[in-house]
Amino acid sequence: MVQRGKKGKDPRLGVTKTTKVEAKTKKGKRFLESRAPQQVEYCKHLLLLYGRKTSQTVKDVMVELKHMRDRNECTHLTRKNENIVPFETGGETSLEFLSGKTHCGAFVVGSHTKKRPNNLIFGRVYDEKVYDLLEVGVDGFRKQNNEVNTVFSPKPSFAFAGDEFENDEEFKQFKSIILDSFRGRIVDNINLKGVDRVIMCTPIYSSGASKRKQVMMRHYAIKLKKSGTRIPRVELVDIGPSLDLSFRRSRAAPVDVEKEAVKKVDEAIKRKKVKNVSDDILDGTVGRIWMKPQDIDAVPLKKPKGKKSRPVEE
């Protein structure tokens, strides 16, 4: 099996290139298979890193985004990276290398320039290549409320208010990236006590001739109050951080790569194969039982009375 992996430098071109690595042992083959795209995807880790220049606002935003995610599922790199410019040609190589090294499928790059102040680039990685990109600007920011000392669960709830998240392409991409970046691992069951916080996103349009698309991103704590009945009264407490984001640049995934990435797997393939068990449309789950061959003649059976032997009369 051949997988994309090792990176080398071509002396003729002076640029970084991607070479192919072939497994020589069974252990190496299993390692490459674990790094390859999976049909049943596990928890997508988040990578936070900085670009060429940053501001204090960008640094504070990145720290708050780190606190919104489980620390075991998030990697924060604090050094500046001069060669990470995702929207430029050749500026994705170092980003793809760091994503593969840290095993992160989603990333956020923070930068600050005169043309694009307080800039954040959200993106995802598929098959060790940048899948899609969405650039937003931080227009408003408020830190987390330190007065709330409650320990929250690492898995938040999400609420997207507005039809724009279903109809507009940029809002749909923003919703998809936010879900992949902050929802954590997918579970079948959850305790109701673990539903203690929600991330709410609301679309707005700025006034003026430009009419920029913006999103208000708020982080609330869910409090259950007494209501005099069995059903509690639900209150939302703003715990921060609060972000006002405006869309700038975006790059969607290629059509062929998107078709391969969103391919659904049959439920029968997801389940682990069990020996001598199959699925039938009419009978449902059918199992085979193997028994030893029996000797019918040696089986003790009850004989009828008519066949009993009687003494012969003389």
TrEMBL record:
Keywords attached to this entry: Nucleus
Record GO cellular component, one term: nucleolus
Location (main, coarse): nucleus
Pfam families for this protein: Brix
Domain Brix: from-to ranges: 44-256
GO molecular-function term, one example from the UniProt record: rRNA binding
Keyword Secreted in record: no
InterPro entries: Brix, Rpf2
Localization of this protein: Nucleus, Nucleolus
GO biological process: maturation of LSU-rRNA from tricistronic rRNA transcript (SSU-rRNA, 5.8S rRNA, LSU-rRNA); ribosomal large subunit assembly
Region named Disordered: 1-26
Transmembrane spans: none
Highest taxon, organism lineage: Eukaryota
Cleavable signal peptide: none
Family classification: Belongs to the RPF2 family.
Protein name: Ribosome production factor 2 homolog
Organism, as annotated: Chloropicon primus
Lineage: Eukaryota, Viridiplantae, Chlorophyta, Chloropicophyceae, Chloropicales
